[in-house]
Fold these 3 entries.
Entry 1:
Amino acid sequence: MNTRANSSGEPILAASGIVNRFGKQVVHDKLSLDVMPGEIIGIAGGSGSGKSVLLKTLTGLHSPDAGEVLLKGRPVQSIAAAERAALIGVLFQQGALFSSLSVAQNIMLPLREHTLLPAGQQEQIAAMKLALTGLPADSGIKFPSALSGGMVKRAALARALALDPRILFLDEPTSDLDPIAASGIDALILQLNQILGITVVIVTHDLTTLLNVCGRIAVLVDKTVTVDTADQLMKSDHPWIRDFFHGPRAEGAIKARDTSHGN
Amino acid sequence: MRLAPGSWSGAQTVTCMPANAQHASASPSQPALVVSGEGDQRALQGALEISTLVAAENALKAWSQPGPSRQLDVALLDSLDTPGALFLCGLRDKGVGLVGVSAEHRALLDLIYGLELKPIQKVRIAPRWRQLVVQLGKGAHDVRHEVIEIIRFVGRAASWTVSALLHPACLRPASISRHITETGIHALPIIGLMAIMIAIVIGYQGVAQLRPFGGEDYTINLVAVSVLREMGVLITAIMVAGRSGSAFTAEIGVMETREEVDALKVMGIEPMQVLVVPRVIALVITLPLLTFFADIMGLIGGAAIAQALLDVSPTQYLARLPQVVDGQDLFVGLVKAPVFAFFIAVIGCMHGLRVTGSAASVGRETTRAVVKSIFLVIVLDAFFSILFEKLGL
């Protein structure tokens, strides 16, 4: 993978001994996951395996029943709000753009709250983020309800990037998108990672994204994660992982990846 | 800020702490930016990030005005983010040469420089007097459309309701009975309480106004007549419009946002028949019953006021009632109820079916439905007053 992975050194995000349970149902049992600075890591798993809960735990939105999440060596929930906002960017599955604000106002909101930049400069930065995520300049004054699915994802990504976070969490970035828009998002993720050096955590079950973009993949099985590269995971003899990487959809995605690499 | 000239080695330096340092207090490694150098040569050291951007801009503002060749040494920059890169690109546009750009930063600078940056458009705001004219015209246009739409929908709803009544097999008794429970039985406590309160309010006013003329006994007439002819049905209709008309809009509106209404159409089921007709029939049955209940409670409230203010015992009050009111007063009040009910239900359903897409639209349509149905109830009540006057009822 062409990511700016830096496997040596301290993990930028370290979850250890995470236990999450709802009532009697245990979702995560002593789950540990290290994310290295500059890498793109995918989190995969079946429906109901706790992908979203894990994402919420990693971003500090959900307090685990046991264990801790360290962001740059400090517990994620003890970091001051403004600082955490500058470290973490999240692209929510439905975009979560504020419907009462235009796209540009959405992007400028964190800038207005957490920086002392003058309004003109905030607008410049917002225009830059729009261009960076491949949105036309005239989409800035549009409201989220006037955007297509792919544009919502791009606009939400532009907002997540507003404060130049060190880690970007993407929740199903390519779901509900047509294949062309999805490939565009994949390319954008790779570009952001290579040029800005942003660490990316992607929760997805889009095999194309997992195989083409992610350096390592964390598969959520048996209430914990198995982390490895795609090639190693394909050799796994765990039944779910085997089915996941050798089903008809996976074969197609692998074929597509091999062809594109061949070119 | 202009820096005093000095030698390169002993150059003046400006240390720029992050702008939001006071917010993010407990950080061990806050990025800082040092601007050094003099004359045409300046150097940046440290972090050029969103948090140090304001300071960097202030330090370099005067220096970066267009002029002779100047150079900015960025070799010692540890970190650079996209706003920082945008700032450097802006300097480059003003003719400042960037020296010592590391490979990593060059990629970022090239990316940002390559972006086609257009300023974000401003929404054009018309002058206030023009806005007023535009709004007036738009309002008139909207009112015309609304009226046409209401007439059309009322007609459709009426025709569907009549055809359902003519073909009882099309009626949905389960749905009708559910709506009767929700709009009727569940509304009993609040409507009863409101009717008593209204009777007390009228009673107090009556006593206060009639006492100087020695006619406070007529308060009983005032309360009984106004409750039976007007207040009972009006209060009930307004309460039902706020309670059930809005519920109709919200229920159907949410179904519309989840494409449930389209699903009905695809399955060949007419939404008017399954969503509108049962609600209309249910409310037309419920509202007269609720009105009758409100009338009774209003008269009980009258009894309480008679006892408290006039020392008329409930037995005496009951004996006097037939002399002051008759069946005609009751009829005049009750006959309005089904008409109000029809319009409240139809307006509620119409706005529910007008919901488009977003959740915000559900709220907007609900508000409109309530405002419009209460308005219509009062307009219709005025018409009834004139009509009954002409008929001599």
Note: The longest helix of chain A spans residues 179-196.
Entry 2:
Amino acid sequence: MSVRPITTIKTVVAGIEGAGAGIKVFTLADPDRWALPPFKPGAHIDLHLPNGLVRTYSLCNEPADNSRYVIAVKREADGRGGSRALHDEVGIGDVIGVSLPRGGLEPGADIARHVFVAGGIGVTPFLSMARHLLQIGNADFVLHLIVREEVPLAAHLAPLMEAGRVVVHRTSCAGRPDLASLVGEVGVQTMVACCGPEGMTEEFEGVTAAWPAANVHIERFVAPPPVIDPDAKPFVLSLARTGTEIPVRAGQTMLAALQEGGIDVSTSCCGGICGACKVGWIEGKPVHRDRVLSPYERERFLMICVAGSDADRLVLDL
Amino acid sequence: MLDEIGAGSADSTARLGWTGLVRFLHLAPRAFLPMRAMEQLVLVAGQGIEGDRYMIGREEGYYSHKPEEGRQVTLFELETLIALKRDAGIELGPEEHRRNVTVEGVPLNHLVGRRFWLGETLLEATRLSIPCRHIEEITGKAIFDPLINRSGLNCRILQGGIVRVGDTVRNAA
């Protein structure tokens, strides 16, 4: 029996395929080929790699095909280690835990035209979006692919190329294209999206500054810092029985902070109603937010799944 | 006072009576995976559902780290799905609530501590299910609050067998 909670979807590596330009395409599937949780076009997942790293990759396959998750990974020798681990250490049959898919774009009913601008391996989120649009018969979209020389994932792009949906811009012969001209005029029925290196996404942000925010989508290789509720403040949990100090980031739950700190705590509903994670507090100013403790109980206990702190330090009976 | 009037006793429940139907059957082999609609489920006494994540010994569910002998099969009311749409405007399918059996015409909240027949299988209701934030994460729908106090029923299997869509659900008192 597993003692730790199951926090990821169990997948096995069902296929690894070289795709040129230092890219490998990994196919992840359920061990029994059960359907995987559904996803939107352009969604991404976190991979919990065997060496402990957690890395985020765009799903490249079509949302209609949720029997597998397909990701394309370029080996970055000087990167942070995720792509090296996948390229060098992961083999067919290896088990990899992944997160539920997040993000992505649902083609809006009022969007008539899509313009995608991708830099190199930044094409990955647009593969599933473009294929999805092709599949549902959306006629008006274009994928501008900016590469130095070699086109990444050429085999995967082939159906889109054959459909005349991809414009390749080779910077080795023509220099960098003008993003403003690729994006064109502001159109309320047009969705523009960009994924690529930081310089490109910054430039894209500039040329689309006048666009309605809902019509612009930017994917970054390195996630921007999370948006934090301005009222949320970090605090420290002090565990009276062990003397351990656990920092809680602004907006983070005590439960998540304790679990990150390797503290085993009982939880169930995670919404402040079941009472499973009731913990005694000794000193501080808890903000309760639960719907299970009475005012009298709140003088001594809190629910760590929803409670916060109004002071810098909160002492728990743990 | 409740004892004095015989409220909720086996006798009164049997006398007042109800009969329901099995409308949908679902299982999933591992945490997070979509539930799959089945025409029948094999219930194993004292263990769980063949192929389901919470079968005792399999332990591949989101809550398997908190083993619970009384969580061998879970039920949910079709009427709750109707109420969610009517009262909260939320369309939730029978594959999304993540319980195994969707029944119609069965007052699940009244059955805690009681025995009843689910087709040819005999169940004993152990406790009400509690909604969890996990289901909002999976479905992307804000259903935690609307499901408080009507999130289904946990049961142990006293007598196993095959449960089919369309089977009758009836009191065993």
Note: DSSP finds eight helices and 18 strands in chain A.
Entry 3:
Amino acid sequence: MPPMHEMAIAQSILDIVRDEMTARHCTRLDGIGLECGALSGVEPESLRFCLSALLDGGPWADARLELRIVPLRLRCFGCGTVFGGESGQDALWQPCPQCGEQFGHTVEQGKELRISHLDAS
Amino acid sequence: MQIPVVRNVLEANEKLAEQVRARLDPGRILALNLISSPGAGKTTLLERTLADLSGEFRMAVIEGDLQTDNDARRVAATGAQAVQINTEGGCHLNSSMILQALDNLDLDGLDILFIENVGNLVCPVEFDCGEDAKIALLSVAEGDDKPEKYPLLFNLARAMLLNKIDLLPHVDFDVRRARDFATRLNHDLAVFEVSCRNGQGLDGWYEWLRAMRQARRQGRLSRQER
């Protein structure tokens, strides 16, 4: 295993894909839909690389990874306003547009790492 | 054909983490997951803690390293039980490894289980090991902006130890900057300034361990956030 956790994540994705393909009696896989939170700690290019390395040479070597980055949504520690979602604003600490509080926000969205769909038949 | 699935990628690890919890629950064993960069002093902290609290608690350590059993041997020299996991290049421990390690530990009467993760501030944060708390360790020989650069760990940890404070006269580390940033990210974070080399500041850490152990024993400890 290379020293990057994206390989472990790619392996987990493949395990779930195999499981779903079997359960749904599918054989052909064209795409894997993945939702990846801005705070999930996953580097998308690295994950893409690891997944293609695992798929290479197998029956699903041509499957696309349809990766959607789920933007960060924070609930302000100071006033409770939910904000965020702009790309490039991926910090857990950023000023609330309502009251200016920078810290202590709760993550409402942005930690997800989940398979949303398979394009399969 | 597009087939909706909606499955958490790390679900397999999370299920195994529940199995780890199920193994530790009957004895109400406090499990702490130690996370830091390489060289911040995790093993030295454990050597000190195990030696100083050996009369008070039964403790065991699961040591995660890419290679070698050097750390497990250091820890075992204190008389505590230690199990080494070699990840062979893997950058983090996961719950499957913890479950295997538990098979090689005597959990009977155990008070505290320390999990010394692989030295890395990113990957170990993603993988639940069934712990009650993540502990962040940061040494003043590193940058004081680590909490700014790796906010997720400092946001999730229940305690942060700033280690090697005996080196402060020789480095540019701004304790207040690291401390303020981390505690603003995480209002519940307990912070201890320590030197595992000379023992300075460790009493506060030991008090915290006692309180955590007590809370675990009484079933008052809330779940570690993910």
Note: Helices of chain A lie at 5-23, 44-55.
